[in-house]
């Protein structure tokens, strides 16, 4: 059963990484960001990561092209992968298209908002704004709560 | 794979098919999967390396024999996989309760350049108190990784910095230092905690 759930997650991601560019002009106003969270940092030298679910409630595909936040000079969507011999690696995920009615999960061990060049430490209990930019020019800003370093999900 | 297909084409009942798929999964991906050949870590007694723990003690594989042991590799500048592994392990240890204090749990850095003893001390302080952080000279880290059949690689990033690719599995040994099993990254807790209990009980059975 658990295995099945994981396949479903993988599928959800597959739907979204297909590189076809979305029809421009519409869509991002129907994007809903849910369950955003991040982990506190130790100082500013280590990169941070934030997680969330990005849901496309509209009728048109949307393409997430980038991130912006006053917290970090280089925010970028990354993907962690673990290969068949158990080696994990991380790389920029590029643009992410979300089909109508679909959502993309940014979650530990997979897609994440990588926050490089932190401008200030991420302090547990605080929030920071993160803006998601879409190919139609739309922007969605979400307040991301900062949880403890050992947090496992949006509930801590 | 072939057997699964034969059954698919045959007019086997749905129950039989379901069972076969389950058995197939069990053997290929599930808890019954064989360890890949050549990937099996050495017993701790056959490893040789010298590192320093986060409290400045000199340590090596010999320190781990006598109690069940959990070892994993990572680095503290890792924003996603490593804190996730550390918090997963902290959760498993919480679930084990008092039994957790009967184990060695060691996080070995693959990035000694940035992960000094002080950096390791600060970092492990945020997770379960049983977890120890080990660092040391690069050649000793490399020897440790070799013993565990783990790999790591430094990868430059756009910003001029670097990140590390590394084995993310958790290695479980019994009290005699023999490998019991590995917990893969992403393995659900329903499998992980019983695997750890197996390492703990093999200790009891083996203590003849
Ligand atoms: Cu990343």
Automatic annotation (TrEMBL), chain A:
Which keywords does this chain's UniProt record carry? Signal
The keyword Chaperone is annotated on this UniProt entry: no
Q: Does the keyword Signal apply?
A: yes
Renumbered to this chain, the signal peptide range is 1-26
Instruction: Using the record for this protein, list the coiled-coil segments as residue ranges, or answer none.
Output: none
Q: In which domain of life is the source organism classified?
A: Bacteria
Instruction: Please give the organism.
Output: Profundibacterium mesophilum KAUST100406-0324
Q: What is this protein called?
A: Copper chaperone PCu(A)C
UniProtKB/TrEMBL annotation, chain B:
- Cite the binding residues for Cu cation: 78, 82, 166
| Thioredoxin domain segment(s) | 40-205
Q: Name one GO molecular function term.
A: metal ion binding
Source organism, top-level taxon: Bacteria
Task: Report keywords, A-Z.
Answer: Copper, Disulfide bond, Membrane, Metal-binding, Transmembrane, Transmembrane helix
Q: Which family does it belong to?
A: Belongs to the SCO1/2 family.
- What name appears for this protein in its UniProt entry? Electron transport protein SCO1/SenC
